[in-house]
């Protein structure tokens, strides 16, 4: 059993294998009740070549609305690139990225920026603005994108900082924060505008187990409060299986398998097996 | 395939594969390789130039269209303008002083010491004021600008702006461009005034030129056209520095070393372009 910072048991039950609805025990909250099987994002045959190397090779993937989808794979497999394609930071050489059926690569600049208002993104490095304090970093999207009155804005930002346990650090600057604090501020900034879809690019990489679990708990709690659609690139195997409803395995720029965590854990694909078991022997030989 | 043309996969070979294959004999293989290498470079240079042009167009368009980020612009004017005043005053004073010193001994040979005021003022207003101010601003503010934007690029802060639906060119580049356009002509004006005063100190107080002659000759020889030419030049240099420095930072790559390379490149390219443009602007305005 994993115990979080707040003393509660962290993590979600794995996807029910007997067909019952998925329920998060620590939160005692039921699943998203909206049209959950309808994909909010669809990547169709996406190809991308960078510096002469094909980094995405015909990726087709659906991201279901209101669910947590994890993308796992080796480093350099193209997972972060997939996230960048989903939010239109990179354009595919071929293929489509559909957001509610609309190809985001055919949108005008203004339409694309409007579409991005539906997203929040947490970068691996946090990507906090160096010159702004913690408070200003979290308030930034609200100030820039919404007409929230100052009093309400301060209340909202302080509320979110309290939730991530950083209410006493609001005057600090990013270079005065630890790695875990940076990720928590980045998480607060990603959710402050209540986006529909949140993309996490390795939110816990490089953190110690306690901080990693506290971040995952925060993500879990945020999900249960708002039922955002979440896409999480992660290396935290097998922990990630307990915290998501779907898993996509990426290898060599391709999605090699998609399924529930249980299906992925029972996969017979040699690469997926090697990745899940963390075996040195297998189809991927690094040395 | 003949030896020496094995790696010949440049734009010419790609564009005309059939013809290239027919041409691939041992003798002309080397020529084809050279042509290919030159072609690759030309294409890269043209692409880079086009990218710079599009970046400038986008920056000017964002700068011209409201909403203006007044707070950001004021902050940048403070950084580019106010914080550069000391270095500008120092440079201007010594430039004026050395001009007076050199000019005095040259003019004395012809018995024309009285023209010292004109010589110092015209040199500063027409030429040295705009050019040296631009070079000082490039070194002090332009390099910092490239480094700042470059670090934001490397640290994914620019991507982060994009994901929030905020146009980074409008947010980062346009205010800096406007701040440069406002601050550099003002700094040039300060440079001119301080330079003339420095010349006055050396010419009149140290070398004994008549104060009335120094100021009187200057007043009669400097016309409005000289001042406006100086302003046009400083505006052109401001645009050039802002363009090159923001571009280099915006497209910085490969970590800390990449930012350092971008910063060096921004200062060198801006400085050289200022001098090159100075010649062409002078030839047009004269």
Strand order of the largest sheet of chain A: 6-7-8-3-9-10
Question: What structural category arises from helix and sheet content of chain A?
Answer: alpha/beta
Note the gap between the termini of chain B.
Answer: 59 Å
Gap between N and C termini of chain A, in Å?
35 Å
Uncertain runs of chain B are 1-6
The whole-number mean of residue pLDDT values of chain B reads 87
* Largest sheet properties of chain A: 6 strands, mixed
Number of helices of chain A: 8
**Percentage of residues assigned to helices of chain B:** over 70%
Anisotropy-based shape of chain B: globular
Compute the CA-based radius of gyration of chain A. 19 Å
Low-confidence stretches of chain A: 1-20
SSE sequence of chain B, one letter per element: HHHHHHHHHHH
Topology, number of strands of chain B: 0
How can the largest sheet of chain B be summarized? Answer: none
Outline the structure in words.
The complex is a heterodimer of chains A (287) and B (286). Chain A is of the alpha/beta class and 287 residues long. Helices cover 30% and strands 22% of the residues of chain A. Chain A has a six-stranded mixed beta sheet. A four-stranded antiparallel beta sheet of chain A has the order 2-1-4-5, covered by helices on one side. In chain A, helix 3 packs across helix 4 and helix 3 packs parallel to helix 5 (179-191). The longest helix of chain A is centred in the C-terminal third of the chain and has 18 residues, at 209-226. Chain A is globular, with a radius of gyration of 19 Å. Chain B starts with 10 loop residues before the first helix and ends with a helix. The longest helix of chain B has 39 residues, at 26-64. Chain B has 286 residues and is an all-alpha fold. Chain B contains eleven helices and no strands. Chain A binds chain B through residues 84, 87, 89, 109, 113-117, 119-121, 123-125, 127-130, 140-141, 144-145, 193, 199, and chain B through 151-152, 155-157, 159-160, 162-167, 171.
């Amino acid at each position: 059993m994993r115990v979080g910072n707040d003393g509660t048991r962290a993590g979600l039950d794995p996807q029910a294998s007997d067909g019952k609805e998925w329920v998060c025990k620590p939160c005692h909250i039921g699943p998203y009740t909206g049209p959950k099987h309808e994909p909010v994002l669809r990547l169709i045959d996406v190809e991308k070549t960078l510096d002469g190397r094909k980094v995405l090779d015909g990726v087709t993937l659906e991201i279901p609305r209101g669910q947590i989808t994890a993308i796992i794979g080796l480093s350099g497999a193209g997972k972060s690139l997939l996230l960048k394609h989903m939010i239109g930071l990179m354009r595919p050489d071929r293929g489509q990225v559909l957001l509610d059926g609309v190809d985001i690569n055919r949108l005008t600049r203004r339409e694309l920026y409007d579409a991005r208002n539906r997203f929040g993104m947490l970068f691996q490095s946090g990507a906090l603005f160096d010159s702004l304090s913690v408070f200003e970093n979290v308030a930034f999207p609200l100030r820039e994108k919404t007409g929230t009155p100052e009093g309400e804005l301060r209340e909202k930002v302080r509320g979110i900082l309290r939730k991530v346990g950083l209410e006493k650090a609001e005057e600090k600057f990013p270079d005065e924060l630890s790695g875990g604090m940076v990720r928590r501020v980045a998480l607060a900034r990603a959710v402050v505008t209540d986006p529909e879809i949140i993309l996490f690019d390795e939110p816990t990489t490089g953190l110690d187990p306690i901080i990693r679990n506290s971040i995952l708990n925060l993500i879990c709690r945020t999900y249960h409060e708002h039922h955002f659609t979440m896409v999480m690139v992660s290396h935290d195997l097998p922990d990630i299986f307990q915290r998501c409803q779907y898993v996509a395995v990426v290898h060599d720029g391709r999605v090699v398998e998609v399924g529930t965590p249980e299906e992925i854990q029972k996969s017979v694909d040699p690469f997926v097996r090697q990745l899940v078991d963390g075996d040195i022997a297998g189809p991927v030989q690094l040395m | 395939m003949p030896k020496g043309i094995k790696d010949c996969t440049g734009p010419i070979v790609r564009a005309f594969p059939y013809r290239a294959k027919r041409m691939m004999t041992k003798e002309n293989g080397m020529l084809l390789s050279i042509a290919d290498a030159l072609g690759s470079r030309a294409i890269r240079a043209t692409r880079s130039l086009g990218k710079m042009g599009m970046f400038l167009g986008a920056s000017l368009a964002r700068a011209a269209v409201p909403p203006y980020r007044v707070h950001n612009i004021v902050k940048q004017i403070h950084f580019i303008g106010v914080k550069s005043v000391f270095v500008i005053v120092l440079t201007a004073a010594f430039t004026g002083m050395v001009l007076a010193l050199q000019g005095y001994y040259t003019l004395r040979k012809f018995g024309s010491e009285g023209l010292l005021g004109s010589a110092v003022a015209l040199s500063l207003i027409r030429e040295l004021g705009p050019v040296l101010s631009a070079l000082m601003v490039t070194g002090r503010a332009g390099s910092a600008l490239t480094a700042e934007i470059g670090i934001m690029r490397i640290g994914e802060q620019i991507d982060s702006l994009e994901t929030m639906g905020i146009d980074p060119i409008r947010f980062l580049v346009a205010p800096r461009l406007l701040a440069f356009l406002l601050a550099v002509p003002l700094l040039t004006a300060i440079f001119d005034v301080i330079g003339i005063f420095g010349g006055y100190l050396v010419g009149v107080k140290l070398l004994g030129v008549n104060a009335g002659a120094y100021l009187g000759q200057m007043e009669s020889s400097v016309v409005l056209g000289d001042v406006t030419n100086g302003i046009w030049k400083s505006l052109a240099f401001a645009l050039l520095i802002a363009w090159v420095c923001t571009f280099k930072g915006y497209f910085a790559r490969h970590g800390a070393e990449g930012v350092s390379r971008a910063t060096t490149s921004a200062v060198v390219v801006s400085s050289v372009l200022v001098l090159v443009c100075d010649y062409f602007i002078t030839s047009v305005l004269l």
